[in-house]
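Appendix B. Extra example for self-study. Work through it before the problem class; the solution is given directly after the inputs so you can check yourself.
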Amino acid sequence: MTKAGIKKLCEEAKDASRGLALIDTKTKNAAITAMGRALLKNAYCILRENNKDVINARKARLTAALIDRLTLNNKRLTSMADSLFEIAGLKDPVGSVIESVKRPNGLVIKKVRVPIGVILIIYESRPNVTSDCIGLCLKSSNAIILRGGSEAINSNIAIFDVLHKEAVKNNIPRGAIAIIRDTDRRVVDELLSQEGKIDLVIPRGGESLIREVSRKSRIPVIRHYKGVCHTYVDKTAFLPMAEDISFNAKVQRPGVCNAMETLLVDRTIAKKFLPRMISRFQDAGVEIRGSEEVRRIVKGVRLATEEDWYTEYLDLILSVRVVSGVDEAIKHIMKYGSYHSDAIVTRSKSNAEKFLREVDSACVYVNASTRFTDGNEFGKGAEMGISTDKIHARGPMGLEELTSYKYVIRGNGQVRK
Amino acid sequence: MTKAGIKKLCEEAKDASRGLALIDTKTKNAAITAMGRALLKNAYCILRENNKDVINARKARLTAALIDRLTLNNKRLTSMADSLFEIAGLKDPVGSVIESVKRPNGLVIKKVRVPIGVILIIYESRPNVTSDCIGLCLKSSNAIILRGGSEAINSNIAIFDVLHKEAVKNNIPRGAIAIIRDTDRRVVDELLSQEGKIDLVIPRGGESLIREVSRKSRIPVIRHYKGVCHTYVDKTAFLPMAEDISFNAKVQRPGVCNAMETLLVDRTIAKKFLPRMISRFQDAGVEIRGSEEVRRIVKGVRLATEEDWYTEYLDLILSVRVVSGVDEAIKHIMKYGSYHSDAIVTRSKSNAEKFLREVDSACVYVNASTRFTDGNEFGKGAEMGISTDKIHARGPMGLEELTSYKYVIRGNGQVRK
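Solution. Structure tokens for the complete assembly:
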């Protein structure tokens, strides 16, 4: 793709975003619903293209986990369509009034949600990101430019073509949804220099991809680098609940950013809780790396290094530490964590509130698994990404997080004294 | 200032921000009120230090406008103290619940406002920015690092010392309010590299300062480059009101970002409106640069160049153009404007709504002067800056715009299926 071609695509997206901002909710919902139906109707063609990616992935000897993320089937396609139907059913954030104030001089000042403009998403493997992000951007009246990974290029293009055709048929500006078909890495560099045309960049994928995008971009970036998520089991915890929550947070899907990487346990209950818990983990194939104190309680556990506490394993590995209480747990999380999702299991109201207040993470939990940090689980239909930044959006980004606002001021001749 | 010294100051700010996030509203309000009183009590000392800056500015032959911005007196000090009292009286944004949802599985998910962390403000001339920003940051529980211009260094340090002493006396962590006393430019470069310690940079000042900060920073920046503000006089406008609003927007204080730079007039009323309006401007010493059509209506007006439409004069100069109606006005504003503040004067509800919807500026006005784009005028007590960005904050930034949020999730043992 030439530099001129990239520039033109971005300009068309910018133009389309202006039109998109003015389209009514009914038209957007009709388009999104039609797009969901089209996914199901074109399942055969999409799955055939997806199969090409899967075959290439096997040839390239990608890991089983990566191939699993890549693979579509009827069930997954149905779930992609369901996400679109759910997005169509959500409240349109555009135009909603965030706050309204009448000033002593009679001016009425309203803070009104508006779309951000043009959003570039750079992502890896999972083809459902293509339809989720198109749905979320369309509903929030943002133009979207998709740049997926080369390993899923056939799937992404197939999904895009089906959705784009349906969008245009339903009165959505042609340039509002665009995909980069060229997998050359230099295209990304060129895209990241389109300041003024692209308003926001969201990278989703491995830490190295995200760091590279952040370093190169002159456009604002919203991201999370990694998810070193913790569960702290307080001395007052109901231990069977603590066990189930910890097990779910680690084992249910270890390769994702909201999975637990470190388990912290109050000293008071460590001897009672850890042997059973660790043996349950080991039975599920989880490798345990423990602090000295953990190793004194459960024999044969490998010693965790300083490095381990900082590590996002994304795998069936867990670091475990005994702490003196909620304060030491918070201190550990603030030092080693990535401010993504952290949980306390407790029956103490004061320890719960302390944890919620003092742990400075995007999502803080009491008595639930960190695995819930997810747009769909939060009722947002899907997610555009998960942010551990503090500027603009934190946690799962749904429709509201894809908006900015403007001040609308109505007067009757007021001038400034 | 050494690199190590800068790093230490930033680390202390980060540490202090953690403590500040947990301080209750009453303590913050007491500190801010005491700081306002201290400003008044120490007026003599502050004015004496300010006088040094004014003498230096005269020696350096700064413009009268700059010296005016720099100069403090009892009235201005009183207004600075009043801003602090007003901030103390505003609602504390920290901890307020933005939204709350109960999911079908029983999880209660709350989106709760939290401070951003450490904010670096880089600003020029006006010493009141020092106290306004300290007040806003303290109330929103953000640590602040101030880097003012060398021309106001004595004033800024005097104000800072008075406020800092009072803050510490009132139980605010010592590191939560910091000032850079070294006016060496290299200190700014070093500050802009403190990613992870500083969370947000707000540059306030001339366009070249803002561009330089944006280019060098690895930390998110919120800014506005310039204010090319428009007033469009619709054919249905009540002309005496249009005249007063336009006159106020240009003349009341021409050197600020929310002053009007371009007047757009509907062709239908141009011959009736322009001669009187332009003569009133000229009587006030405003130089008019008009389109060909304006020059046919009012003789002796200088021709506006293409460059003029893009220019923020910050002076008694105004470009004037005749347009065919609201659509052409919007098109002009979107092409030449800076998305800061734009107004329509009209009695047509549909033209008003069209203008409000389609002009993609931070602040859009109907029948009022653009000069109201100001934190104080918006009821925010003061402002940390004005943003023309779309990410995080737009328009005047007050307390709420100085917060981020976290998701607080309460469960009773939920795990993900």
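Self-check: Chain B has a mean pLDDT of 96. If your reasoning did not lead you there, revisit section 3.
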